[in-house]
Amino acid sequence: MPLTIRQTIAQILTQGPWSALELAGELLITRREAEEHLSHLQRSLGKGLVVAPAKCRGCGYVFTKRSRLDAPGRCPACRGQRIDGPWFEVKP
Ligand SMILES: [Zn+2]
What we know:
The chain is of the alpha+beta class. The chain has one domain (5-90). The chain has 3 helices and 5 strands. The chain has a 3-stranded antiparallel β-sheet with strand order 1-5-2. Strands 3-4 form a two-stranded antiparallel sheet. α1 (5-13) packs across α3 (31-45) and α2 (20-27) crosses α3. The site of zinc ion (ZN) has 8 residues, from loops.
């Protein structure tokens, strides 16, 4: 039986950290869909899904307090909109 898209994502994430945007590009889905799958994975894997916080490309601000999985739209420190991450990884 072929893997479901969620199983595929879980498998990809065992190889290292990926952002929702990178997953979306790899799997030809939208970023929103990738985020949806990631939040389900977080529910089923719990702490097995490791999240590295998003980071502002302009000033280096790290969104450590953010619990949502989607990418922040704007940096509170410099108002920049070039935000990288957050990144997700599955640990055994
Ligand atoms: Zn910034």
